[in-house]
């Protein structure tokens, strides 16, 4: 005897199964994002916050674990490296050259090098402002869940905001100090054979020359504390 299949009964039996499959699918997708977010939070807390400006490049495996959050990490990396490169290419050389000036003759010997490096230093502020504006735009567009938002903002403040705000006043202060050093070199060069050096002391012919030289050196003394601040910035200490 032929046995027929009741289509209504099959439909009623299949419905719970399909519903279960949909629930399982949605749950799996949700877990993936949750795992990526958890991995990113862990990475921010245990790697980013302890690395300063030396943020590591993500491995392919790490990119897979972080998912789309790898792009948010890249915002931090990009700014950090742009700022570090700018400091190494402009502020660092000025600090190094100033460090080479130990005796009065060095003002003349380092004059041309320092004058050239000043031109590059004067562009650093705009470079950092541009890099920060790009990072701020990307940061503002991020839509993080509450458990991630606070931690990422803290990392952003550590890697982007504080270093940028910390370095900006140092740049013109160091430029002003370096310019004063260049002017001392200019002055000594202009004196020609009327200036001599004896036991690391400057010997000038007239009291007017001595007074002007001493005034310039006194001005340098009031500005030289910026050199220590700039040295710390080169080391990534803001």
UniProtKB/TrEMBL annotation:
A Pfam family that the UniProt record links to this protein: DUF3053
UniProt signal peptide: 1-28
Tagged with keyword Signal: yes
Domain of life of the organism encoding this protein: Bacteria
Keywords: Signal
Record InterPro entries: DUF3053 (IPR021413)
Official protein name in the record: DUF3053 domain-containing protein
Originating organism: Chimaeribacter californicus
Source lineage: Bacteria, Pseudomonadati, Pseudomonadota, Gammaproteobacteria, Enterobacterales
């Amino acid at each position: 005897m032929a046995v027929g299949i009741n289509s209504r009964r099959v439909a009623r039996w299949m419905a719970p199964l399909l519903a279960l499959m949909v629930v399982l699918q949605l749950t799996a997708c949700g877990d993936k994002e949750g795992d990526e977010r958890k991995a990113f939070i862990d990475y921010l807390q245990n790697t980013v916050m302890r690395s300063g400006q030396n943020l590591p490049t993500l491995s392919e495996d790490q990119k897979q674990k972080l998912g789309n959050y790898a792009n948010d990490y890249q915002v931090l990396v990009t700014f950090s490296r742009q700022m570090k490169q700018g400091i190494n290419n402009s502020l660092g050389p000025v600090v190094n050259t100033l460090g080479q000036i130990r005796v009065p003759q060095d003002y003349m010997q380092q004059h041309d090098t320092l004058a050239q490096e000043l031109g590059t230093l004067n562009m650093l502020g705009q470079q950092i402002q541009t890099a920060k504006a790009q990072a701020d735009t990307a940061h503002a567009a991020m839509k993080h869940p509450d458990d991630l938002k606070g931690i990422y903002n803290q990392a952003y403040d550590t890697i982007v905001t504080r270093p940028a705000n910390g370095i900006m006043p140092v740049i013109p202060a160091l430029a002003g100090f370096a310019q004063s050093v260049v002017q001392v070199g200019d002055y000594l060069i202009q004196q020609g054979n009327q200036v001599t050096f004896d036991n690391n002391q400057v010997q000038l012919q007239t009291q007017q020359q001595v007074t002007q030289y001493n005034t310039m050196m006194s001005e340098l003394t009031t500005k030289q504390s910026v050199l220590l601040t700039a040295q710390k910035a080169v080391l990534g200490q803001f």
